[in-house]
Amino acid sequence: MPETTPTTAPHHAASAPDGAPPTAGTPEAAAARLDAFRLRQAPTYIPQGEEEAVFAAAFSARLPVLLKGPTGCGKTRFVEHMAYRLGLPLITVACHEDLTAADLVGRFVFRDNETLWQDGPLTVAVRGGGLCYLDEIVEARKDTTVVIHSLTDDRRMLAIDKTGEVIQAHPRFMVVLSYNPGYQSLVKDLKHSTRQRFVSLQFDHPAVPVEARIIAAEAGLTAADSHRLAEVGARLRELRGFGLEEGVSTRLLVYAGRLMRAGLAPVEACRAALSQTLTDDAAMAETIDDIVRLHVGDLMDDHGHGRADA
Amino acid sequence: MTTAMAAPTPDHGGLSHGFALDQVGWAHRDLFERAIGDLMARGLIGPERREVTATFFGLLRQADRGSWDHVLRRFLGALTPRNEWLLEVPALFADVVGLGRDLAARRPHRGGRFFAILAEKGLGETPAQVRLALDQARRLCGLDDDLALAFLEGSAELSRRLQPGAIEAFVDAGVAAYGRQPQSGRAFLEGRLESAAALLAALSRECRLQDRRSALAALLQALAGSRLELAPRTALGGLLLEGRGTGSVCLDGVLYLPESVCRSEHRHENRAWYTLAVVCAAAAWRLGAFCRLGDPRRGPRLGDLAGPGNLRLNALILAEGSRLLAGVRRLWPGARGLLRAGLAGEWQSPAGAARPEVLWQALAEDDPGGRPDGLRRLLAATADAATVFETAARLEDGLIEALRRDCPDLADAVLPAVSFIPDDLALAEPAPRPDARRSVITAAPPRPDAVGAGSTAPVEAGQPEALPAEAAEDDDAAPPTAFVYDEWSQDDQDYRRGHCLVFESIPEPLETAPAPPPELAVEARRVRAAFERLRPEALRRERFLCDGDAIDHDRLLRALVERRIDPSPRFDIYEKPRVNRRDLAVALLLDLSGSTGEATAAGPRRLDLERQAAAVLAEGLDALGDRLLMGGFRSRGPRDCAFVVFKGFDEPWSTLTWQRLQAVQPGDSTRIGPALRHAGWRLGQTACRQRLILMITDGKPMDVGYEPATHQAHHDVRKACEENARLGIRTFAISTEANSAADLEIMVSTPRFVILPELRDLPRLLPRLYGRLTL
């Protein structure tokens, strides 16, 4: 099953001797179920450009959106932000290679001596209106992702072969995909037949001042400390492809900030959240530690005591 | 008793590997029996550890050479608890035993001494230390076995005190001493000479660039924010900067640092010097200091910017030095302490004391009031300059006159350098860049379809320098396409950029090629049939699940019935489709070097056996549906590496591909790294989930530029495998006994290789091996 919370409630499958589609619940009932997926609090999000305007325009034009960007650069947070701003329920599916079409659309379950149809996360959003966010879509098998094709063009409909239903998407339904093009793997690339159905937004790690504001907001650090951490992040991203496969994510910088906020010394916090997380290579970890000390510590702490000579 | 002696371990049938106690002199039999029994009882040898046991008894079999009893007794004595861990690393153990056996084969007493050293002092505490000791000992054996033993006497101590690079330097010094006087060389390596102790002390506090190079290069990249290279200062040739106290030079995007630093009594301070030099160079780069301008031979010199006279030049040096260090402190507050310590170290050095005080006053973090007024005004006027040009533009005559008034000595001579600040002055004509031609190659337009942007991503060189002669002579022929790859240098701990050119070609089919021999056709049919049976279903249903996509109605019915008779029935009524598509691409690489032209014991040449094996495998893969690239490699130096394609991924296995396979003849040398990188690149173009390189080689990597005494080529192969692994490509090597297990452990690591005693079996074994790897 895909990871969605809270779980979708099952429908009673209609005994339909005449072959009519089983009852799938009224739109009102679907909307009530979807209410559980609404965000109650506004997520912290600091815009980096025109992404909010593009997303809002895509929603009003009923166009699906594709978010591209490296790990931890804020794609998911942006979707949460927009779902809250547009007043939409948000159903997130973390894609993986065992994800099947049934995991998205739904399946029959047997309960209380009855066969019941249970909508999958995609169907729930299609029926009641909402934002269905397929996170890291390239992790899913290509034959699974084609299920969204009919929802992402002018038809905006979902055919469920097991129930014989054809559902016209709710006017407030929207599909959002995310993926990280940095994998540089042909296996993990998005098919053009899928890609060319979407409006695309490119995300990247925020600039230092923006990232400092994010760290300050998320970790509760002072502006000066947040700025130093953001500087560390900017420097570490220079090592991408030069020993690090991925640049450090904003998420990890926030973790480091939270550890600092919890009372850990900055260098120790960054060692736990950054150098030891980003690499297993001792020389690279040493470099990251040096960069951290240059910004939030003292290089003499290492060199002055000859720790590395041990 | 006699039976026990004849077969020391009757209950371990076959484990004695041809050894019997009666091969040993009677005086030693009890000792041998006890030692062997003890090792077996402790599980160090035995049926669970076949490789080690084979190595162990392989040496003991020498017992029938009477003079070896002493050697073997020493060998058994060396397997002390301290050395037991060696038996956990079979290939390393085999290398240790192999060296002892080789020494004993030449002079038995040397073998005895070797094992005595192993027993008393050990060769090191980690596999890397032992391997280094063995490598150096083998190198020294080329000169004199006793010299090698002298080195081994002290190798454990050297491993404890020195880094690998320093050990090599120590051995080099020993070899030099041996060249002057053999006895001195042996005494030196044993550590009995004062000069050896002094060198050991110097090396142990010395920090070497090669030991820190990768970490410093990464730090430089991160802080400077652009691609700056790091190189030893010796690469500049005979640049005349010694008199200025220059430590670091930044020219044309390359930071040149000394190969070693031994400024302080403490190694960590010498180590810190490198860090400080890199930090200052990165700041200079970011702040638009003079070194950013590039090669001063082609552009303006600092003196040109400052204007005429020493005073103006020194004013610019002071202003820029102050601006640079202020920038370091502002950008990276964590460097302040290190900078303070670095300046103090320079100031207190004998050379520092001779330098004008105004230099230290300008570079100090704060001004306690000691700065002359002229200097204070100069620094205030230039502190917020954005680049060296702006600093130079602010040197107004009034400031210069004030400086002349307060610091008249500045007009006498150009200020000396501070070692860790990049010396921007090109006071001497710098030698050309060490690898100027590299820029010719990498400046060529990149391939439009080149994948990745990693350091080893291939680029097509439009006009590579090292074209084959026949191609270069033919004016009408288009220049052959070359793929440019880096090569790893273990000595430098860095890549040699664009060092290898790989030329890919497809051979003309040999139309007169004979049909495959009948026995080969039989084997191919058999393999094909076997692989066809193994071909997986494209889609199968996974049933009996507690959660799934659909309900299995038969199971549901059964579960409902069972529920009436079983209080806790299984409710596994769901099923789920599973796509079980085989999605694999493989590149089969054949060694085409000259040695494959040699005949095997069975008759056919090695290359012929490789061809037969490749043909059988190709038949099988055709049935299995896996995508196969069949290629071969050979080389004539790094600039002429051939990659011959017999069958592309999208071609069927056919008569044409068989004729291409028959068309090549063995020749040239073996440079494996570029071939692996190129195969990795080709595999990277396929959209398969699983990707594999199968490499068949009949010998050690050996080509122009490889030092036979080192493992440089092996380390490059390992790097190539690691680069491919990062792309999800696995490498498996099949080798003859020309490569030892230790060689292959360096190249591809355990368990991704096999060593075949007989290549004759290759056509039969290759498909089985492939099946084991992928099915």
Q: Tell me the number of helical segments of chain B per DSSP (H or I, 4 or more residues long).
A: 31
Structural class of chain B: alpha/beta
Q: State the strand order across the main sheet of chain A.
A: 3-6-9-2-10
Sheet with the most strands: spatial strand order of chain B: 6-7-8-14-13-12-15-16-17
CATH superfamily of the largest domain in chain A: P-loop containing nucleotide triphosphate hydrolases
Q: What is the name of the CATH class of the largest domain in chain A?
A: Alpha Beta
Shape of chain A: elongated
Domain module tally of chain A:
2
Report the sheet-strand fraction of chain B. 5-15%
User: How would a textbook summarize the main sheet of chain A?
Assistant: 5 strands, parallel
- Percent of residues in helices of chain A comes to 25-40%
Mean pLDDT of chain A: 84
The run of helices and strands of chain A is: EHHEHEHEEHEHEEEHEHHHHHH
**Unreliable spans of chain B:** 1-15, 427-477
Flag low-confidence runs of chain A.
1-24, 304-310
Residues in helices of chain B, as a percent range? 40-55%
Mean pLDDT score of chain B: 79
CA(first)-CA(last) distance of chain B:
51 Å
Short description:
The complex is a heterodimer of chains A (310) and B (775). With 310 residues, chain A is an alpha/beta fold.
If you had to describe this structure to a student in words, what would you say it looks like?
The complex is a heterodimer of chains A (310) and B (775). Chain A has 310 residues and is α/β, with parallel strands linked by helices. The model of chain A is unreliable at 1-24 and 304-310 (pLDDT under 50). In chain A, α8 crosses α9 (223-237), α8 packs across α10 and α11 (266-278) packs antiparallel against α12. In chain A, 39% of the residues lie in helices and 15% in strands. Chain A is built from 13 helices and ten strands. Chain A folds into two domains: 10-202, 3-Layer(aba) Sandwich (Rossmann fold); 208-309. Chain B has five domains: 2-206, no CATH class; 209-411, no CATH class; 436-505, no CATH class; 540-580, no CATH class; 584-774, Rossmann fold (3-Layer(aba) Sandwich). Helices cover 48% and strands 12% of the residues of chain B. In chain B, the strands form four sheets. In chain B, strands 6-7-8-14-13-12-15-16-17 form a nine-stranded mixed β-sheet, sandwiched between helices. Chain B has a three-stranded mixed β-sheet with strand order 2-4-3, covered by helices on one side. Chain B has a three-stranded antiparallel β-sheet with strand order 9-11-10. In chain B, a hairpin with a 2-residue loop joins β3 and β4 (254-257). The longest helix of chain B is centred in the middle third of the chain and has 22 residues, at 310-331. Chain B is globular and about 100 Å long. Chains A and B meet through α4, β4 and α12 of A and α12, α13, α16, β10 and β11 of B.
